[in-house]
Design a protein that fits this description.
Elements (H helix, E strand, L loop, with lengths): L8 E5 L2 H4 L12 H8 L16 H14 L4 E5 L2 H4 L8 H16 L3 E7 L5 H4 L8 H17 L5 E6 L1 H9 L11 H24 L5 E7 L3 E3 L4 H24 L4 H9 L10 H7 L4 E5 L4 E4 L16 E2 L6 E3 L4 E3 L2 H13 L5 E5 L4 E2 L14 H19 L4 E7 L13 E2 L3 E4 L5 E4 L1 H12 L3
Parallel strand pairs: 1-2, 1-14, 2-3, 3-4, 4-5, 5-7, 6-8, 7-12, 12-14
Antiparallel strand pairs: 8-9, 10-11, 13-15, 16-17
The structure holds 6-O-phosphono-beta-D-galactopyranose (BGP).
The site of 6-O-phosphono-beta-D-galactopyranose has 14 residues, from loops.
Family: Belongs to the glycosyl hydrolase 1 family.
Pfam family, one: Glyco_hydro_1
GO molecular function, one term: hydrolase activity
């Protein structure tokens, strides 16, 4: 039996845009997702857009009973910026009522709400001004953050500023999966810098307002492994680490942007526009905790050819196909639980053993109706095995002193996933799109209940 520390968080994560539905209802204005779907619906799997998701906006009360049913003691979701402040300034009373009732009901049922502020959902009014490319976005976000602390600070004691900031940077400005889907390394770095400053300013607002509780950030940490120990491959790995691991972890936890990263950007004419006082603000506004989303490792090698100045990250490192890899064929992601132990050790050794939790981990599988038994329950043993393997590695890290305080899966009920729509399912509950979004428990939900009841397995 592996027993986890007392008070360990067992729960799941989700986000406003992927679960709420009613994307243009209840006073909410459009985000880049709503607009992109309007402009290019063909980009979205089966034409599934953000208007109809698992529709938590109307079903949250029943869903919270379902969370309780499977033993969840915590739940992370986000607030929709465009719902709370439809024009960036005016408070939407209907949104305040909804979120207050949502968070209050979670608390009344013994489920701690962990509330995040940005999950890839840039409001359209701000995107029209340039989104994260403009410095204006930093102040706009800080205002939104402060508004959320004031309106919900009595109900929320653990805040997060961003979910996976690297994703909206990479997918929007390098790889084409998020709006505006352009390829521009220099812009990507500027967008990244403004995102960092928006985070830091939100932390500053939290500290200056003396709000009760903790504030952190959720990062997708994709541990990198080099093809070999040869210098060229190790150099590629180091550059990948600077861009993918240290870019946010260093300033958020240590209060300083990595000097090596600054050098690398300088050498490649990628230095973003900054303001003199930013350094000080970064230094004095570190986080209380870190959330780490872990799905897959990153295997890297030296690129065959590269340009200076670099035009894309591919000029720094190339991806390497490890012949021994196990893969989740639906999502195309490698399954490598051992990385979670490495992450635990990295947090302990390189980041002052700051408290952290696994804020997302999970397995997306397509066509899960194949696994329905005669009683209508998805027999997702693969998901249970996936969790067991990852928890085994996490446990080892905790035994060796890493300060991990929880494990959240992605996700609680099957949810909408950006361009992938409802293709891959991750939930403990299945959502039936053909039958009024009905929820039904999967086998993994039963297992999770036991896990949480025993605080281990
Ligand atoms: C994370 C995101 C989530 C979620 C999850 C699963 O990166 O924080 O929003 O979607 O990945 O990935 P996907 O939905 O792309 O299969």
């Amino acid at each position: 039996m592996l027993t986890f520390p007392k008070g360990f968080l067992w729960g799941a994560a989700a986000s406003a845009p992927q679960t709420e539905g009613h994307a243009l209802g209840g006073g909410k204005t459009a985000t880049t997702w709503d607009k992109w779907f309007e402009l290019n619906p063909e980009k979205f799997n089966n034409n599934q857009g953000p208007e109809v998701t698992s529709n938590v906006y109307e079903f949250y009360k029943e869903d919270i009973q379902r969370m309780k049913e499977i033993g969840m003691n915590s739940y992370r979701t986000s607030i929709s910026w465009a719902r709370l402040l439809p024009d960036g300034k005016t408070l939407n009373k209907e949104a305040v009522t909804f979120y207050r009732s949502y968070f209050q009901t979670l608390r009344e049922n013994g489920i701690e709400p962990i509330i995040n502020l940005f999950h890839f959902d840039m409001p359209w009014w701000l995107m029209e001004k340039g989104g994260w490319e403009t410095r204006e976005s930093v102040e706009a976000f800080a205002f939104y953050a402060e508004t959320a602390f004031v309106e919900f600070g009595d109900l929320v004691k653990r805040w997060a500023t961003f979910n996976e900031p690297l994703v909206h940077i990479e997918c929007g400005y390098l790889y084409g999966f998020h709006y505006p889907a352009i390829v521009d390394f220099k812009k990507a770095i500027q967008v990244g810098y403004h995102t960092l400053m928006a985070h830091v300013k939100a932390v500053e607002a939290f500290r200056q307002g003396h709000f009760e509780g903790e504030i952190g950030i959720i990062l997708n940490v994709t541990p990198t492994y080099a093809k070999s120990n040869e210098d060229r491959d190790m150099e590629a790995k180091n550059k990948a680490d600077l861009l993918i691991i240290k870019s946010f972890l260093d300033p958020c936890v240590l209060g300083e942007v990595s000097k090596d990263l600054v050098e690398l950007l300088k050498d490649n004419e990628l230095i973003p526009t900054t303001i003199e006082t930013d350094k000080e603000i970064i230094k004095h506004n570190r986080v209380d905790y870190i959330g780490i989303n872990y799905y897959q490792p990153m295997r890297v090698k030296a690129p065959e050819t590269s340009q200076v100045p670099a035009q894309t990250p591919a000029d720094f490192f190339a991806s390497y196909d490890w012949p021994e890899k196990r893969i989740n064929p639906y999502r195309g992601w490698e399954i490598y639980p051992e990385a979670l132990y490495d992450v635990a050790m990295m947090m302990k050794n390189d980041y002052n053993n700051i408290p952290w939790f696994v804020s997302e981990n999970g397995m997306g599988v397509a066509d899960e109706e194949r696994f329905l038994d005669e009683k209508g329950m998805v027999q997702d043993d693969y998901r249970v095995d996936f969790m067991k393997e990852h928890l085994g590695q996490l446990y080892k890290g905790i035994q060796e002193g890493s300060s991990c305080f929880g494990y959240h899966t992605w996700t609680f009920v099957d949810c909408w996933s950006w361009l992938n729509g409802y293709r891959n399912r991750y939930g403990f509950y299945r959502v039936d799109l053909d039958n009024n979004l009905n929820r039904s428990l999967k086998k993994s939900g039963l297992w999770y209940k036991e896990l949480s009841q025993h605080n281990g397995f």
